Structures are given as structure tokens and as C-alpha cells.
Amino acid sequence: MSAPEEAAAAAGPTEPGAAPSDNTTMSAVLADLDGDGWTGQLVALEGGDVRCRSCGEASPAADLEVAVERRLEGASDPDDMALVVAAPCPACAVRSTIVLGFGPNASGADADVVAALPRTSPA
Asked: How many other β-carbons are positioned within 10 Å of the β-carbon of residue 41?
């Protein structure tokens, strides 16, 4: 397992019942989060930072207060893996989401952010 895959597998706070899912679509997950007030967007940057599309500020992914994480795998291609994260922007507090690829098809920026996300200790 690669470091980004291990990071995603060990990722901290998870929405109750939000185990990896192959029957939930990305659009359904994002629509649910949008309905819950997570309307902003974050963008992955090389080096483990994220940029808020609302305020334009870049912040370390390690500073995110992750509220929800959902792992998704592609129905036709299990290597098509994504991590949806909901967290307020550290700079302006807009409730935001970010979609990150992980696994063999992840971009460098996505892999950097997945590796930098804060982790919680197992209970």
C-alpha cells in the first residue's frame, strides 16, 4: 500500500457510517454535504497546502479541522479512488469540501494533501 493509500485508510474523523463505499456516487456525497451547508471549495496544491476558492488564501492541509471524510472507489475501476473531505477554511471559516484522488492515479498535489491531513489517534 502506498503512503497516500495508507494515509487515506488511516484518515481521522469519519462521518458516522461512512465506510468506504462503492455504491455511493461522488455527486450524491457532494450534494448531501452541500445540503448540510458545506458550500465552499478547497483546491489541492503541491506541497500539502489547500487554497480556498472563497477567500483565495492558501493554508496547510494539516491545519484543516476535518468534519467529514468519505472514501469512494470507482465501480468499474477499483484504482479510481477518491477521498471527499469537508472542513472549514482555516483562513475564513467557510464550510468547504475538497475531492482528492488517492492511490495509483492520484495527482502529486492530491497525494501531498492526503498525506498532510490531520489524523486522530485510534480509540
From this structure: 17
- pLDDT, tens digit, for every residue of 67-90? 999 999 876 556 679 999 999 999
Q: Is the dihedral of CA 116, 117, 120, 122 positive or negative?
A: negative
φ/ψ (deg, to 5) at 87: -160, 145
Would you say 88 and 35 are in contact if contact means Cβ atoms under 8 Å apart? no
Using alpha carbons only, how large is the chain's radius of gyration in Å? 13
Give the whole-angstrom CA distance, residue 64 versus residue 43: 13
CA separation for the pair 18, 104 (Å, rounded):
22
How far apart, in whole angstroms, are the C-alpha atoms of residue 12 and residue 69?
8
